[in-house]
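ok trying this again, last paste got cut off
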Amino acid sequence: MEHIAIIGNGISGITAARHIRKRSNKKITVISSETDYFFSRTALMYVYMGHMKFKHTQPYENWFWKKNDITLKKGYVKQIDTAQKNLIFSNGEQLYFDKLIIATGSKPNKFGWPGQDLKGVVSLYHKQDLDAIEAYAPNNSVCKRAVIVGGGLIGVELAEMLHSRHIPVTFLVREESYWNSILPSGESKMITHEIIKNGIDLRLGSNLKQINSNEDGTVKSIVIAETGEEIKCNIVGLTVGVSPNIGFLKHSTIETNRGVLVNRNLETNIKDIYAIGDCAEQRIALEDRKPIEAVWYTGRIMGETVAQTICNKETLYTPGHWFNSAKFFDIEYQTYGRVNSEKYVKPNESHFHWMHPDQTKCLTFAFDKHTHTFLGINAFGIRMRHEIFNRWLDQNKTIDYVLEHLEIAHFDPEFYKTYYPEVLKKYNVETNKTLKLKSKSWSQLFTLKS
């Protein structure tokens, strides 16, 4: 019986295992040194905040794996013998495979700061990170202050977590406005205001110089590079992005760059070895996509794709239109398609921006300034329907069409206040048009064809 070994039990590896099992009776072994069972990484913050227990982050009951004949193995793979098709573990054990899927995910970035490996320096990616945060910041009696370095989505999640236990937080962000390399300026300023409004000591234009140590090797303080200011703290969160977790492949014949290099079938340069998820890097980037995309849904799609190829239905990796979602304290965020910040805006890209007077809700639409084709939307504080925007992007609808039919993309409860007449009114004023909303009933929502 053909043996499929999968290194990594995150969303990519587990999706691959499940879909291989659906399509075949191949022997499947999933290997992880992190946890016994697959869990949802995006839910880690809610465990710390008390909204759920860690067991609630596991989508499948423990009996699921045996029932589906998927073997789970706890262990760390330190080397791959590609010639003999053997995995070599840190304890000297070996495991033969017929086909191998590398799905080892990401690791938090560190940039050689003095003190970056002290006790109390954490990230928010692995289960072990959650355990460390719980140990060094259980409450505001033990942890008098936390410092977070790096202004991405993980950073703001960690800030909210610590804030939920009334731990004072200083947040070092190198940009002059929060996440302004990703968000257009209006949105960036709104989120900057939201973070400060929640009591976070946000230090914009600030970089970490070093982390100082107590005699016992725990965190004592940090120093800001620009000013030399020392801030006493008990825990430091490093959230300056992630990199593919592929250190164990350093001496392998598997070709790597930043990640494991793969083609559109997710195959490496070695026959019968594949890579998926955060650790995989497309040799030729897909149009308007980055060669490495560390988001859960691309990992899930890669898992489904490689499963079909391994089960003799060769399939190209096709991630579809970009989308993502997150939360900035009380403001929910969704993005569909591409809306670039001013720093990366394309020559043909134009924006229409609407913001509510309370500065907790806004919409930014991107469209082609020549053809008026809709390119994408950022939504803050207003929930939208993914399937509707996906369809409009597929159909190359115009910005006028999207605004006229915007109500049908609304995801909030039926009697929730909508703002679309105000949005359309502003668009009409700015463009000297007289568009009107073409509302559809809720019964028509899922049957809309145009």
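PB: full thing came through this time. The domain at 323-447 is CATH 3.30.390.30 (Enolase-like; domain 1).
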